[in-house]
Amino acid sequence: MRHITQSSKLAGVRYDVRGPILQEAERLERAGEAILKLNIGNPAPFGFEAPPEIIEAMIRALPEAQGYSDSRGVLVAREAVARHYTEIGLPEVDPGDVLLGNGVSELISLVLQALVSPGDEILIPSPDYPLWTAQVMLTGGRPVHYPCDESNGWMPDLDAIEALVTDRTKGIVLINPNNPTGAVYSAELVRGFAELAERHGLVLMSDEIYDRILYNGAQHEYAALHAKETLCLTFGGLSKVQRVAGYRAGWVVPTGDKEMGRDFLEGLTLLANMRMCSNVPAQYAIPVALTVETSIDELCAPGGRLYEQAAATHRLLNDIPGVDCVAPGGALYLFPRLDPRRYPIQDDQQFVIDLLRATRVLVTNGQGFNLPTPDHLRFVALPAVPVLEEAIGRIAEFLETVRVD
What we know:
Aspartate Aminotransferase, domain 1, Aspartate Aminotransferase, domain 2, 3-stranded antiparallel β-sheet, 37% helix
């Protein structure tokens, strides 16, 4: 019998956030088990509702959103995105340059397909949001991971990154605020990324989907403000800040030296045309979302749900013997380390599955974010504090049974 096999392009590609661990959780749920989920950054199931103005804007647009839009997106939405970046200090943003997509995920795929030839290298943080690594591999490129220093708040070292640049390096990825670590980069560090990209003629790809989810006075710095002599691609959207992940409304904005990237941008336009357009009704939510939505600021301030949940998660994790966790400056995640002397984990995916079976708590393994060592877990701080207390309490009890003193 001839077997139908998966493409060889998938060799080595992983996306553990929705992989075997989640499949085991789903099996347990089918068997009637209740799972406490701390594994995925999807605000809606945890009671984070979109501002009503955003929902109403999309509903009003439904009668005129039945057909395809311009492949770049509806003009009013692209104008709103351009205006948003103009207001932060980028006067060269033109609505004609803005490309709307089905979330940042689709746009990452389109950009890398248009940019990367077989053998090209893309510099990506470790740990990273794993879609970046997976999509580079699917294009035939080579992801080159630059380390982020946990002892320094998960900050990358620019000199170490520059040492990784070769004549095949095509671009560098900046994820700020960071998923999975919660790190928020200083203006000086972001400027350093831009200068590095300019020195080597690299495309700077700045994933800024969490740009307004910030804690304890952290400030987000837009990479595009500093990259003038190379092409900068800024990725943003409504999924996290406006809590409408299911709408799949995202954008990518090219700035800097667009003439330098003319050929690439033509290729990106070709790919955008081939997929017709992104979800049209959700595009009409963008102008309202970028002009009236302010509730995220309250959620991230002391007393707000996101702030209090992140703080509680950080405290509860650090209370566990042998567990250390850097406080997040932003985003929705924490990335604690389990002391390998106390918890000698060899296979972190299997460890998380064992943890799930024993506690009915679902988290994600650190190597799923392209970390080289099996000693980290990623927690999502979206459940209410009592749920977090219950879940992390169960984890603490499990760790007590496997700890080596």
